[in-house]
Amino acid sequence: MDTNVFPPPQSVDEVAQLVKRLYQPGNPQVISSIQDQLQTLQRSSDGWQLADALLGYEDVNVRFFGALTFTVKLNNDGASLDEQNAQAVLQRLIHWLVRLVNQSESPMVIRKLCSTLVTYFTRSPVRWQRPLFHLICSFSHGDALPAEAVENVSLHSSELISTLSTAQLVSLYTFSGTFADEIGKIEYSYPSQAGLHVQMEREVLDVSPMLRFGLQSNGDNSTKLRGEALRCFLTWANYAQPIWPTKPDTLQYLQDLLEPAIQCLLLDDADVDALDVFIDLLESYTSFFQRHHLDAIASIIRTHFGPQLEESLRDQGAMFNPAGQLVVSYAIAVIEDIVEKPDGQRAQVTLPLLAAILKAPGYPGDDDELSTITIEFWNTYIEYVNDELFSQDSHDDAPDWLGSAKSVTSEVTTLLWKKMWTPPGEVTKQWGDAEKDGFRSFRTDATDLLVSVYLFLTGEMLQQLVQLALGALQEQQWRALEAAMLCLNAVADNVLEDQMSDNILAPLFNSALFRTMGDFTHTIPTQTRKTAIDMLGNYGQYIERHPEALPDAVRFLFASLETAAFANISAKSIALLCSTCRHNLTGELDGFLAQYQRFLGGPTSDPYTKEKVIGGVAAIIQALTPESAKVRPLMALLENIERDVAFAKETVASGGDVELAQLTGVTALQCLASVGKNLQVPDDVPINLYDDDDINNEKKARFWSSEEGNAVQSRITGCFSILEILGNDGEAIDAACQVLKAGYTETTPGPFVLPPSITVNFLQQCSVTTPQLESVLATACTLIHQHSQVGSVRIDAEVQAIYQQVASFAQALGQPREDPGVSQTSIDVFSRLFPKYAAVLFDSTPDQINLVLNFTLQAIEGSDQLPKRSSLDFWNRLLRAAGPTNTAVKVTPEIAAKALEVANAYGPSLTQTLIRQIGGLGQRSELDYLSEPLRALFTALPAQAKGWVEASLWSEHFPPVVPGVGDAEKRRFMSQCVVLRGGAKTKEIVKEFYVACRGLVSSY
């Protein structure tokens, strides 16, 4: 042994005492100091000597530390060992492994030594040939054999294995498993790495007989050996999955072990559950199994695990059972046969067991874990069915298995429905949060599954669910009824796509369902009524087509609105139903107004319910014709809002409850916004071919510009007076913005289509410290955008005022980083000026232009992503407006000339900023955004852009880069930019240059 690596040990006892103290309770600062000392010793030049000496110490923790020290030295210095020293280190490690295993050392130390040997294999500059065989030979010999002696061993590994002790074999399984696991983490990219994987192909020749010996072992220690062999086998299979898919001959060595491994499933004395191994393999590596292996597992399920599972389901319900997990994993693995060969063994073995799980007693989330596990299989089943059917041509014959699949999924629908019944109160009162969350999660997963099943069964499934609901209603089985309605709610979107489904739904909606739900003298579970309320919101389109169902629905919802437990969901469903069925409810509007008025005085009137219900009433008002018919009911709604505004103002003025005044005022604005939103013309409004839109729009415009129409708008804008006391309330500001935006998207005049000056005045009342200023600026952006559309009215004066105000915000901030949110939305306003209102920017004073442009450049240099992206978009628009063709941003020749003047003036600064970011200062996620203005530069000003980029690349402000990027690389990047002239591939070269500058690639 080379004494340079292992000189005589010194002061080992002192190190051992430090290690012992490390594992004793004590002062954390002392422990930290000891750790620092030990880490220094591990990395010291005599660390090899220290590690070797500590492994011979009497204390187990000290020996573990010795093995760990070997690992540290190999990671730090292993690659620099010469051949002689590398062989010396290997010999000492093998010596200690053999010696300590023979001395019945602690498993903790043995595992660490095995791990250290694997580290040696990956870090040593000298290739360790046949590591597993080397260890087998050394164990057989009784001490570490030199590498050259191993080469002369003529016996096969299978002959040597039979001579080893149980402890020796266990250590070999530990080493082999760690070996496969660690090599599996190494990429296949470079020759040195690929060489390790190639050696694994030879290593399997020694691993496979060793694994077979353990899997087929019998005798006193066979249980332990089988368990360790199974674990090691699983690790090797997991290694092989991504590495050997194209190496069938090599993989066959492991596949040949499947048969003895499968036999382990039948042994009851295994200390390691073979089930877990096969569950893992079936779930992650189905292609590893050959057909006869899968048939063998099916036979074992039929004869062994199936009866065991059935007995467990009878005695304990659907509590977790590994046999159930095996059935699920196996069924997913053979899904094709289960679907397409329903009479075959695989389907006949698994499907009855999977159905039995769902039939077993218990509640998901509590004492039923298996039902939740089966959801994965049924999702796989229906996904396979749907994929096969949807991939068929229309003229193809129906597959032979179609009838069986319908029968299976129909049964599953019924079973899932039963599993979704909410437990009785005496059960749920014992539940904690975990059980409640588990049950909710199961219902969510089950209803998602039923949506997929509906795509297959369609009307048949709908008929089934309706009959389940009607049967439960007749028998007053409220929990069953709730589950049926929950299932119907889940498929509502798909059902409503086909109006042919209306005939199937009719018996349910024409039944006494909603009359019964609305009769609060009946004792019905709260959850059942809640699900019924949701159903009305989900099936609004059906009710719109069948208004005869409306009276019961509306009565039920308003009755529920007065009950605290149902108020919120009732308000939501009222809003949805009124919006959907607005044209059918216009005759009931006075009744709705009266009910709303009565509701306002009740205990369930709160901000959420008030906003939802008033929005629903407003949706009905929208359906009234002519426009004049909307005034009276709309005024009635506004009176309630004005009443709240007045109350809030008076409360503050009289020194009353400020919090109550604030809540009332904010709610008033939110209700006003809800009215505005619901007065918008629906996107799906039917088109009347006999109407003249121009005449109708002219009539609307005349009405809303008349004295009567102006009066309504004055009442709406008058509600903004609440901001006199709530001007520093973010919620109030946000609600006011929603009111303003309610009219922006309308293409015809209406009560909320307010003059642009209202938005401008609102913005001008704000300062840079106004809460939710971002919302106000976003509202201004939307206004400019709407009036930039083709055919829209120009609002130059208003846009000019907006620009001046926003520029003052930029001036007040000074730097974008002072408030990234306000900075971003301010820059968005500047971007929206292009192309229609670009003159507003270019015709402002030089100082103001300078302020705006420098502010955007600072944002690009900053670390906040959103202002940076907005600024990059701004410069992209400006530069494209300056181009000779300006096809992307079409502006007049006068504006193009002014844009070109600005581009020439600020081009050098902008280019330097962009190149600094591309040169490594920016984030990788920002490169696409950074590329756009660079492309625009070379598109609009190719000659100038070349000079600006060149100056920026060799500027003193160019960021420091890795040594591999020098003048040649910079010239290459610049020449590529010039050649591409702003083409789409500019993005690619920007990314390549960036990663080169950051040192993320080996060469550029």
Automatic annotation (TrEMBL):
InterPro entries: ARM-like, ARM-type_fold, Importin_beta-like_NTR, TPR_TNPO3_IPO13_3rd. GO terms for cellular component: cytoplasm; nucleus. Gene3D superfamilies: Leucine-rich Repeat Variant. Keywords: Nucleus, Protein transport, Transport. It is found in: Nucleus. Its main location: nucleus. GO terms for biological process: protein import into nucleus. It holds the Pfam family TPR_TNPO3_IPO13_3rd. Belongs to the importin beta family. This is Uncharacterized protein. It comes from Cladosporium halotolerans.
